[in-house]
């Protein structure tokens, strides 16, 4: 299995028979158009019959309508979108599965449950080929401690823990977790990430939404050593993690 970093919260997970693409938005490359350069290419889109495109919400750094053009490359693509995207003026997209929090999609090849977010949209728990993959979307502990007052911070923490508790209740064994590590909030921008690592102990933790500050992700990995959790210190757009 290969996992490709496609910028911000965008990733492509290429499994043995299934491809999962999450929150793709950056569709230009400085070099040749290839997944190794951080953009989806026709070869990858055609590699498997089963291709699923996930969009957690409508923010421009999570959703680019160009993903809908991929139908012409692989007509078997299944789109799993946050319901809010339809509500934001995309109601004409009739061949897309729009999902709300707590809804489940299953087709025999994949099972996906939508969980909540502490921003707009949803997060995804996807089960395919014996693996469980969680993509948080914009679910995070958005505390903004260096600029917010105590009431805001307390409410942000309560909202975050409430959303997590719903996921914990379902008792998933998460193999791969994509989750924000966002130091725009200051030195404690990794509090949410630390919390979910301890709560879920995923086999692989993959930072996202870090504004391509790769040095900060390297430092995050160096400071957070867990016995059974591997942290991917992404080094560039198009970087690839190969897992057996």
Give keywords.
seven-stranded mixed sheet; 244 residues
Q: Give the integer mean of the pLDDT values.
A: 96
Series of secondary-structure elements, N-terminal to C-terminal: EEEHEEHEEEEEHEHEHEE
The backbone outline, from C-alpha atoms, is: globular
Largest sheet: 7 strands, mixed
Helix percent band = 10-25%
Strand content: 25-35%
Spatial order of the strands in the main sheet? Answer: 6-5-4-3-2-1-14
> What's the total count of β strands?
14
Quaternary structure annotation: single chain
Cα separation of the termini:
6 Å
Unreliably modeled segments: none
Word description of this protein:
It is a single chain. With about 240 residues, this protein is of the alpha/beta class. About 20% of the residues lie in helices and about 25% in strands. It has five helices and 14 strands. The protein has helices at about 40-45, 85, 150-170, 190-200, 215-225; strands spanning about 1-5, 10-15, 20, 50-55, 80, 95-100, 105, 110-115, 125-130, 130-135, 175-180, 205-210, 230, 240. A seven-stranded mixed beta sheet has the order 6-5-4-3-2-1-14. It is globular. The chain starts with a strand and ends with a strand. The model has no long low-confidence stretch (mean pLDDT about 95).
What topology does this entry show?
Layout: E1 2-5, E2 11-14, E3 18-22, H1 42-46, E4 50-55, E5 78-82, H2 83-87, E6 97-99, E7 104-106, E8 110-115, E9 123-128, E10 131-135, H3 150-169, E11 176-180, H4 191-200, E12 204-208, H5 214-223, E13 230-231, E14 240-242
Parallel strand pairs: 3-4, 4-5, 5-6, 10-11, 11-12, 12-13
Antiparallel strand pairs: 1-2, 1-14, 2-3, 7-8, 8-9, 9-10
